Amino acid sequence: MEYRCVATSVEGFVQQLASCYLPHGYWFYVSGIIPPGKDPESVDEKLIAKYGIGLSRTSRARRKAVGIANVHYIRHQRRFLLLATHGFHPFYDDEAKSIRDARRVPIKFEGYSISVAKGGFRRKEPGNGAAVPDNKWRVRVQIERELYKGLKAYLIDVAPYRSAAALAAELYDLPFEPYAPVRQQLLNLLRYTNRRRQAASLTPISPSVLRYRRRIVRPFDSAETLAEMPQSAVKAAGG
Fold first, then answer.
1. 234: alpha, beta or left, given left = phi > 0 and alpha = psi -120 to 50?
2. Is beta strand 138-143 parallel, antiparallel or unpaired with respect to 112-117?
3. Euclidean distance between CA atoms 135 and 121, whole angstroms
4. Where are the alpha helices (DSSP H) in the chain?
């Protein structure tokens, strides 16, 4: 079976990381850029062969059972990631100086910050008022911190001078899928914008301008099909 590794969109790249790789323990990563003049497909083939990546699920399960790490590879245009689980593998020897842990150093890609973290609380059960701490590792997809700070400063600056319709369009057009942490950031941006507009006695912008449910894509297909993600399918990705 052909190993598919070329994500055809930013959304697909992030979705594959957040929904398929990071939730299954592929926390250790190396990030790289294929330089101009090199054929990306030849780099794909070389790395897939070098680290024995194109394995079936059953082969990966057998390797995991005996303490051998598994490795995935994904690329969008010229940016690529190698991701590995715990265990023994030549990846750890060959890439030792470049390996990062997504629990400590977020993966940054096209304005997103993708990490793995504990924290927060589980959803309360009906009739039970006590919040239960969530000690599982969860994937967090956010707008990268410096970019978020820049967006905040920009929106606060222009809020008194733009029409509500123009600002609503800018917020709606921000190129980030609304994973749960992203949704919270977008709501914060809206709140800062409205606070500035209210201080200038201007009409606030309705929260309805934001998109609250993320779309799913076919990460490796050239003709992507977008659809709303069912709520049950987004939990592992912080959605």
1. alpha
2. antiparallel
3. 8
4. 10-16, 40-50, 57-65, 90-94, 145-158, 164-172, 180-199
Question: DSSP state, 22?
Answer: G
Q: Is 10 left (phi over 0), alpha (psi -120 to 50) or beta?
A: alpha
Backbone angles phi, psi at 3, to 5 degrees: -85, 120
Phi, psi for residue 196 in degrees, rounded to 5: -70, -40
Nearest residue to 158 via CA among 192, 124, 118: 192
The neighbouring-strand residues paired with 24 are: none
Show pLDDT as tens, one digit a residue, over the chain (239 residues): 689 999 999 999 999 999 999 999 999 999 999 999 999 999 999 999 999 999 999 999 999 999 999 999 999 999 999 999 999 999 999 999 999 999 999 999 999 999 999 876 566 666 666 667 778 899 999 999 999 999 999 999 999 999 999 999 999 999 999 999 999 999 999 999 999 999 999 999 999 999 999 999 999 997 544 444 444 433 433 44
Specify the 3-state DSSP secondary structure of 195: helix
d(CA 36, CA 186): 36
Looking up tokens 């790289």 gives 32
d(CA 18, CA 229): 13
